[in-house]
Amino acid sequence: MFREFFTDGGNIGVDQLDGICFVVPISQARLTQTQKYIFDSILAVFGRDVEKNIYILFTFSDSQKPPALSAINAAGIPFRRSFALNNSAFFVRPDPDDLTRKFWIMGKSSFHKFFNDFLNTKPVSLSLTKEVLQERKQLEAALQGILPQLQNGT
Fold first, then answer.
1. 70 CB contacts (<8 Å, ≥6 apart)?
2. Integer Cα distance of 31 and 75 in angstroms
3. Record's PANTHER family (predicted)?
4. Per-residue pLDDT tens for 56-102?
């Protein structure tokens, strides 16, 4: 399904990639195996061409230095920029003297910075990615064809 989305072409497929956002809770000191797998899979599919289009979005920020940033760096995950976001105040009516108001302002500012930076990314063409995915599909089909012969020892 993933392969089909990027290789169908026309109005269905995707010709370019503007950005990839990985969302990680800010307090997470270590990446999970699932997160590592996702990061590795995305990089394996798109290659190093997309490194300048990867963003890390840290959630539940309270303006501290993100502990999860150390985990991202330790895993060697390349990224353009990271943003600490807090949207806890977006769904409540803030009282002008309330702490919620401060979180509202902080969240709005963080999202504004992220979207401004995102608007300045240069899209990456996925033509080469499509070719690689098609070649992988052909190799998989060829391997499926010879696998029974290998298993039978012929």
1. 29
2. 8
3. G DOMAIN-CONTAINING PROTEIN, PTHR32046:SF14
4. 999 887 766 788 999 999 999 999 999 988 777 777 776 666 777 77
Give pLDDT tens digits for 105-145: 888 888 999 999 999 999 988 766 566 666 767 777 777 77
Q: What CA–CA distance (Å, rounded) separates 154 from 116?
A: 60
Residue 29 exposed, middle or buried by CB count within 10 Å (0-12, 13-18, 19+): exposed
Cα–Cα distance for residue pair 123/106, rounded to 1 Å: 28
Q: Which domain holds residue 52?
A: 19-122
Are residue 130 and residue 116 in the same domain, yes or no? no
Q: How many whole angstroms separate alpha carbon 23 and alpha carbon 95?
A: 29
Task: Give, rounded to a whole angstrom, the gap between the first and last alpha carbons of the chain.
Answer: 33
What are the structure tokens assigned to 43, written together? 């990089």
Contact (Cβ atoms closer than 8 angstroms) between residue 56 and residue 19: no
CA 63 to chain centre: 22
Same domain, 83 and 62: yes
Residues paired with 57 in a beta bridge? 23, 83
Cβ neighbours of 148 (radius 10 Å)? 9
Dmax (CA) for the chain in angstroms is 79
40 and 111 part of one domain = yes
How remote is the C-alpha of 127 from its chain's centroid?
19
